[in-house]
Design goal:
Blueprint (H helix, E strand, L loop, with lengths): L4 E7 L3 H14 L4 E3 L8 E6 L4 H23 L5 E5 H7 L1 H6 L5 E3 L7 H8 L4 E3 L16 H7 L2 E5 L1 E2 L10 H4 L4 E2 L2 H13 L4 E5 L18 H9 L6 E5 L8 H9 L6 E3 L7 H6 L6 H14 L4 E8 L6 H14 L3 E6 L16 H26 L3 E9 L5 E5 L5 E5 L8 E9 L3 E6 L11 H9 L1
Parallel strand pairs: 1-2, 1-3, 3-4, 4-5, 5-6, 7-10, 10-11, 12-13, 13-14, 17-19
Antiparallel strand pairs: 8-9, 15-16, 15-18, 16-17, 18-19
Helix pairs in contact: 9-10, 10-12
Bound molecules: S-adenosyl-L-homocysteine, iron/sulfur cluster and FE3-S4 cluster (F3S).
């Protein structure tokens, strides 16, 4: 083989797939694979798929249709392109994928990514399908990214600390696609965070399907909590911001709530899915908490961190949802005043209990979705508007479209654009918000001179005076 081989990975679904896609690329880097930005010139295409709703799963097959044409064209030019399906559709459908889409060479479930190099060798002589839940821990076998790869991925990074779910909400496929809950040990996570910080990462988001159920072994051999883990990570030099997602209301324990009070690095924005505001629906969904439980948790978090803002996930049209149940959801949204949310129409998934229940009509689902979305958008805009005139720490992460402008994120994950030198990318800098766009805040450095890089001071001062 001459020259490096090109790899294109496309992620669907949640942030864990984004993280996993990086780890797959890291695993294939020592094999000579270099990432490319499009499928067209790739030697290996990996679709890292999502099974959560029907639409997400079906997207994969339309993409595979396009890739088949690409692969056949490449073959006429003497190029052998391999197509792999990874992620939750791979886990859920296994060899069914190869039957429906014979263009696929390789199917790999989320617990087998460390086996990719060996699987690719086998794929030279036929289809390879790996969807077992192996006993060995994949995290011990996945190589870490190079410093250069981390730099390229930017100043914010994910770390998977927990994977899988034992909760079995009646609508959800995740316990089947990701398996039962596991937590990584504290020392491994700390080592990964230190490595990221060393490569210039300033913001770390801890991820897991049930991230606050985290109970990995601490250095003393006893189980830790997410709160304790966050305390430990906040000590790492260079780590300016911490976040975690996605959490379950039931696992919001006192150590985690205390972390929101005690750790300035822990951002005051929390994604806490509630799904519904109706106790009847929460019960049918097997969420194992009530509306009152949720409100109590939100209140405790607000007491710990008064500037906290909540976002959430909602499902409308869950089997049996009445008008009254839906109104309960609308009332909960008003009570908590969510500033953002993902809203979904219930999608029946084969093998889950809710798929067998009496379904709500599509028309009703559409109507409820629209009402809920409209209400959330209104709150999102109101929150942006409230930010006007305020001063927020912004972590700059990229250049913006307009010359001289750079872009970053507020503590609440809003995009903030500012006229400022690109040397501030990777820095957390106070910004005064002067203007509000549809989805973006615009501002000016609160203290323009204090943050300029030293050698360039005089140049900038002249520019400012001009
Ligand atoms: N672990 C997280 C969420 C995982 S899935 C939690 O416990 O909240 C992300 C979101 O997809 C869920 O919060 C839910 O709102 C939505 N979702 C999951 N299954 C769904 C289904 N069958 N139909 C519609 N939305 C669904
Ligand atoms: Fe799915 Fe419920 Fe587990 Fe979240 S807690 S991943 S919604 S089963
Ligand atoms: Fe989708 Fe799997 Fe994530 S089903 S949401 S990619 S855990």
């Amino acid at each position: 083989m001459t020259g490096p081989r090109k790899l294109f990975v496309k992620s669907y679904g949640c942030q864990m797939n984004v993280y996993d896609s990086h780890r797959m690329a890291d695993t294939l880097a020592p094999e000579g694979y270099v990432e490319t930005a499009t499928a067209d010139d790739a030697d290996l295409v990996i679709l890292n798929t999502c099974h959560i709703r029907e639409k997400a799963a079906e997207k994969v097959y339309s993409e595979l249709g396009r890739l088949r044409v690409m692969k056949e064209t490449a073959a006429t030019q003497g190029r052998d392109v391999k197509i792999a399906v990874a992620g939750c559709v791979a886990q859920a459908e296994g060899d069914e994928i190869v039957r429906r889409a014979p263009t696929v060479d390789l199917v790999v479930g989320p617990q087998s990514y460390h086996r990719l190099p060996e699987m690719l060798n086998r794929a030279a002589s036929g289809k390879v399908i790996e969807t077992e839940f192996p006993a060995d821990d994949k995290f011990n076998h996945l190589p870490p990214p190079s410093k250069a790869a981390t730099r390229k991925r930017g100043v914010s990074a994910f770390i998977t600390v927990q994977e899988g779910c034992d909760k079995f909400c009646t609508f959800c496929v995740v316990p089947y696609t990701r398996g039962s809950e596991i937590s990584r040990p504290v020392d491994k996570i700390v080592a990964e965070a230190e490595r990221l910080a060393d490569a210039g990462v300033r913001e770390i988001t801890l991820i897991g399907q049930n991230v606050n159920a985290y109970h990995g072994d601490d250095v003393d051999g006893r189980p830790s909590t997410l709160g304790r883990l966050l305390h430990r990570l906040a000590e790492i030099p260079g780590v300016a911001r911490l976040r975690y997602t996605t959490s379950h209301p039931r696992d919001m324990d006192t150590s985690l709530i205390a972390a929101h009070r005690d750790l300035p690095a822990l951002m005051p924005q929390l994604h806490l899915p509630v799904q519904s505001g109706s106790d009847r629906m929460l019960e049918a969904m097997n969420r194992r908490h009530t509306r009152a439980d949720y409100l109590r948790v939100a209140e405790q978090l607000r007491a710990a961190r008064p500037d906290v803002a909540f976002s959430s996930d909602f499902i409308v049209g869950f089997p049996g949802e009445s008008d009254e149940d839906f109104e309960d959801t609308m009332r909960l949204v008003a009570e908590v005043d969510f500033v953002a949310a993902y809203t979904f129409k219930y999608s029946p998934r084969a093998g889950t209990p809710a798929a067998e229940m009496e379904q709500v009509s599509e028309a009703v689902k559409d109507e409820r979705l629209q009402r809920l979305q409209h209400d959330i958008e209104r709150r999102q805009t109101a929150f942006l508007t409230r930010c006007q005139g305020g001063t927020f720490d912004v972590l700059f992460d990229r250049t913006a479209r307009r010359p001289g402008q750079i872009s970053g994120r507020s503590p609440y994950l809003q995009t903030v654009q500012v006229m400022a030198p690109i040397s501030l990318i990777g820095e957390v800098v106070p910004v005064k918000i002067t203007d509000v766009g549809r989805n973006t805040l615009f501002g000016a450095l609160a203290d323009p001179l204090a943050n300029l890089p030293r050698q360039a001071d005089h140049i900038q001062i002249e520019t400012l005076g001009a």
